[in-house]
Specification:
Blueprint (H helix, E strand, L loop, with lengths): L3 E5 L8 E4 L2 E2 L5 E8 L5 E7 L12 E5 L3 E4 L2 E4 L9 E7 L4 E6 L2 E2 L5 E2 L9 E7 L4 E4 L14 E2 L8 E2 L11 E3 L11 E4 L2 E4 H4 L6 H33 L2 H6 L4
Parallel strand pairs: 4-15
Antiparallel strand pairs: 1-14, 1-17, 2-13, 3-16, 4-9, 4-14, 5-6, 5-13, 6-7, 7-8, 9-10, 10-11, 10-12, 18-19
Length: 256
């Protein structure tokens, strides 16, 4: 139930540093976690298998999307989506039903599947993974800390319960070159609100309230109720034709 913050160790001695969650998922479901870029700078967010290195996106069993609008797998880099920077919230979603990875930026879906993979990976546990160059970041696995709400049937990975699969280093793994920030827990990070333009931080929303939603709901209901009546009338007309005509007549009229 926390939003964890991490930053690079000054003495790490490497240009990049990777960290992988100690629990993953494999069998089914649609799972997500959210990462905030706290300081600006480059980082890569995605999923990796147990056997993958911590260099996210550099081997065939890891998939990452970076702040420079670049996706990578097996060391192949391609342009995708849009850049992200300081204070942006990136929700990384794994759809095990479709075997696809998609992303949301500040609650708005980045169009298209970032990655898809074949049936040969079915049953392979995949773990949330972050690879940072100079960026301080924070992450939530349960939606706490002001993460934009999920959509599209996705759930926070922390809710997977018995479906969670522990990584083999969960008990014995070392701290690595990424350390918990000293001020973790002091600042919960930006809160998000839904505006007519999508999810925005409270500061970005500039004091907008949720009152506009009542008018929007009434507007939508007005038109959907008319469509429902038209649909019902059309359905009744088709049923009447089916009941009064033979199979041959229906086929001739393009109904059967």
């Amino acid at each position: 139930g926390t939003r964890e913050r991490a930053r690079r160790k000054a003495e790490s001695g490497t240009p990049w540093a990777g960290v992988r969650a100690d629990c993953g998922v494999a069998s089914a479901g649609r799972w997500a976690f959210c990462v905030w870029n706290e300081s600006g700078g480059n980082l890569r967010i995605g999923w990796s298998a147990d056997q993958a290195t911590l260099e996210l996106g550099k081997d065939r069993l890891s998939w990452g999307f970076g702040a420079t609008a670049t996706k990578s797998n097996a060391g192949n880099f391609e342009k995708f989506g849009q850049t992200f920077a300081k204070d942006d919230a990136i929700t990384c979603c794994l759809d095990l039903e479709r075997r696809a990875i998609i992303y949301f930026k500040n609650g708005r879906e980045i169009p298209g599947d970032c990655f898809t993979f074949g049936k040969e990976l079915s049953g392979t546990p995949l773990f949330p993974h972050v690879y940072t160059k100079e960026a301080t970041f924070s992450v939530t696995f349960d939606g706490s800390g002001g993460a934009p709400p999920l959509s599209g049937g996705f759930q926070w990975i922390a809710s997977a319960g018995a479906d969670l699969i522990p990584h083999h280093t969960r008990v014995s793994g070392g701290a690595g070159p990424v350390a918990a920030a000293e001020d973790a827990g002091v600042d919960g990070g930006p809160e998000f609100v839904l505006t007519p333009y999508g999810w925005r931080t409270v500061e970005q929303a500039g004091g907008l309230t949720q009152e506009w939603r009542a008018s929007l709901d009434a507007y939508v209901k007005h038109f959907t109720s008319s469509l429902e009546l038209e649909y019902e009338a059309e359905r009744q007309a088709v049923l009447e034709k089916v009941q009064k005509r033979s199979t041959r007549q229906l086929q001739d009229e393009g109904i059967g």
